Amino acid sequence: MHSRRDEPTLSVTLLSIVAVLCAALSGAACADAEEMPDGSAGTESGGASSGGGEIPVDEMPPECRLPEEQDPKRGIEIRLENASDTPVYMFMDCLGRYEITSCADGYTKPLEVHEGCRVDCAFEPVDVCGSCQRCIGSVSEITPGRPRLLFWGGIHYHASERPSGCPCYKPLTFPGGRYRFRVPVYMSEHDAFAGLSPRWVSADFTLPLIGGWLSVPVAP
């Protein structure tokens, strides 16, 4: 998924790894932590603001980093491509149905890649809560001449809470590094709507993405 030198001592490295697992990959459990498109996100009642920040690159384990001179502040286009004659189907709604995970924790915990029905924590006034219109899902058929296109901006919508008690998010840019994209696909439109017998497909990528887009084969 997400956006993301002198050698540290062992203790500093361990603290850094703990920090990224808390600040970057946790939700409510780290709601008070320091700072660290897919266009299907629901409509919010409030506007967006520029609040947010970056996850320090030192919090990305060395084996997951990219060269420092590369700029991670770019999203990625994802193309689900079917090279077979058999159609494949994918379900999407306002919450999204794909996952992006980070090398930082061994690709184990999905990142929050959608705003959801929350407002930016920095939005004024502070008593405004986010709200969504009805979340309507749809199914896309993926064929050789009709790939499914997605976009991820390299942003982690870190869960937090406003003083009013409303849930909110902090938009945090991930550092350059290694990530993984996963999505369930289905053999029929009915199965896609019902969530029956999903087949997960995946592809690893880097931020920034080298080559312009991420191609994900989905052929059965």
UniProtKB/TrEMBL annotation:
Alphabetically ordered keywords of this record: Signal
Comp. bias regions, Gly residues: 44-54
PROSITE patterns: PROKAR_LIPOPROTEIN
Protein origin, superkingdom: Bacteria
Region (Disordered): 34-72
Signal peptide: 1-31
Official protein name in the record: Secreted protein
Species this chain originates from: Chondromyces crocatus
